[in-house]
Amino acid sequence: MPENFARFRRSHEFWLLSVILILVVGLSVMTEGFLTLQNLFDLLTSYAFLGILASGLLVVLISGGIDISFTATASIAQYITMLLANKYGLNWFIVFAMASVVGIGLGAINAVLIDRLNISSIIVSIATLNIFYGLLVFITGGKYIYSLPPWFSHGIYWFEYVDADEISYGINLQILALAVMFTLTWLILNRTNIGRQIYVLGGNREAAQRLGFNVFRLNILVYCYMGLTAGVASLIQAQLAQSVAPTVLVGKELDVLAAVVLGGASLAGGVGTVFGTILGLTLLAVMQNGLILLGVSSYYSQFFVGLVILLSVSATALSARRKRKGVMTE
Amino acid sequence: MPTFLELTHISKRFGGVQALADVDLTLESGEVHCLVGENGSGKSTLIKIISGVQPPEAGGKIIIESREYSHLNPVESTRAGIQVIYQDLSLFPNLTVAENIGVGQHLGGFHSVDWNAIRATAKRAMERIGVNLDLDVKVEDLSIANRQLVAICRAMAADAKLVIMDEPTASLTRHEVDALLALVRELKKKGICIVFVSHRLDEVLEVAERVTVLRDGKKVGTYDAKEMNDHKLAVLMTGKEFHYDLAGIDLSARKTVLSTRHLSRKGDYKDISFDLREGEILGITGLLGSGRTELALSLFGMNPPDGGEIHLNGKRLALTSNREAIDNGIAYVSEDRLTLGLVLEQSIASNTIVTILDKLKGFMGLIPQAARQSTVDRWVKDLSIKVSNTNNPVKTLSGGNQQRVVLAKWMATAPRVLILDSPTVGVDISAKDGIYEIVRGLAAKGVAVILISDEIPEVLYHSHRILIMRNGRITGEFEAHKSSEDVLRVAVNA
After folding, report:
1. What is the pLDDT of residues A314-323, one digit of tens each?
2. What is the complex's ipTM, to 2 decimals?
3. In A, which residues are within 8 Å of B107 by CB distance?
4. Cβ–Cβ gap A200/B111 under 8 Å
5. From CA A56, how far away is CA A44, in angstroms rounded?
């Protein structure tokens, strides 16, 4: 056990956890509203969208690829699903299934292009982001959907609890979906051979091929999983916003990327954990929320996010360099 | 010994190139078999056919433990017990030792991961060959030698009966090579057949029982390793006789170019005194860590000595940087420079003049095209680099000609002293010979050359005089034409 702890202390996660703790303590002392049940509940609810997408992007990054088209995918999934839900009624199960199918389908397009044409994933996903988004805005004319089915608008609430100020808490749709997707991602990555194959692929693609791993199948799975998370995330976002706007999601992809990279995933592939991603997302959320509570202009918020990413990535690079030197002089 | 694998009439064409022509090969259980040949001789193609990556042409037969195949696929090959350890080891740096060894358990359709089974597999594989590594360490944190052990364990975990190792000693120190060879003997005792594919003939002959030589896609023959030496193998591999001897030329009348007196640097070398004459090739050899490279770097201004003197043409030199050394006419070509010292996408001309851009610089810092072209033409001619157009990218040249471009680049600085540190590591025999030829040509033109190498035949046959270094001191000096490999080997290991 002490050996495991020593290993943990040297990890990226430990470093992140320390920074978050310092921030949390600092913000709790400096602001009134930070460490309240209501604030934490709101944070969880509003960052669930980014979190679900982050779990999908984490899988893509581990495989050694990248995808930035998922916000366009989410917009399309959201729009189609809600359009049909308004028309035909539907229910929870069907809307989630539908959004997932749309997401998986668009993810498959990415996977086929990346694998079969052997184009780098960043290029493919920049192109498909524009194609997906362009088509959506063109076809819908950018029109919002304001009226959602009443059962959808009302949402889901479990274990509801109302405090003295008559504010209610509980497990809502966002928190439930976030928990489910994080758990699912963790299970896939750590408890199934497919998840380990994704690490294998990201660690050394050529060796994976030589050993007989099916790279095409893995690419399909990875980008379709990204699409699935985009589908799920799109619905809980629509539920929270109580509307569907084809133009609001695109642009958030860099926030998601920021959370995953902060969480220790490497763009070179093979590295990253769900726990790290949760911490990365937490750091992002605490930072953005804290700055608002401190009354700092939201423009600065982006500045700080950028700064923290730079610091975090530099710290990782430096410790990697030190480690390499250690190996050399062994 | 029982035959494990038998190949008959194996041929392979890629487009218009006959990579393999009617090759037969038998491998026996429990033997160490060496596969040698120059680049392009068909070694890799043969391995690919055995491992099932490429099918042979129709008519070829592959018999593994008396089962006959017309061709294999990678899964069949693995199932039959064939494992290839590629030069890059094909490991996953991001995963732990245990997972790398047990990675085969991740193959196949969707199933859950049994981490205990993976650890048990890894442990068993390590016990089988008597190595002990921390199962939970990531492979990226291991030394190259330990990574190789992980790769061998992985082959063991897959129940290998035939392990093919591609250039296994290329990036190991002498000590690590010895450990590897001991392990190979261990595998052999367990009845596993090991095939070595290697350039380093001397090491290979230490463990191999039989050697198969390929040349231009054809099998030259299979020989008993005991009857072979590196010279004989070199002749078989290239089909050429090499005449190495630099007949004892009397250099005593030549002017001394470089001399050191009691040169020392704490921890690196001590009390080094020697003279280097015009047109002389001085070989320096010794074990890794004998201080030879550190000494060379000092002569090149990069590792300042803390005692003693360096004289160049009678003048005392106190070098503080390699720029100064270059300005004084000293050039140093390190091991990897000959293979990595080029910008492959750039033109031959640009690569040649890159060391003397400052000298060529004219009006407003621009490079006058006429001066550039005449410099390039001169070196292309002097080093007989075979080019159709000097504006073609370097990568269009053959390996041997690329090395000439590297030398041209250094010769363009007009050095009077050229230091070559292990110039032929990882280079195949014909290309090696090309380098020696150039070096001899440069010496004939009056350049003083220091040739550092840990291959004794290399310094013996390509220098006039040889210095032996050991623990930072010069422990012996030999006239090359009055010495022999055995004499030098004893002196080096004394």
Report:
1. 877 777 677 6
2. 0.89
3. 193, 211-213
4. no
5. 18
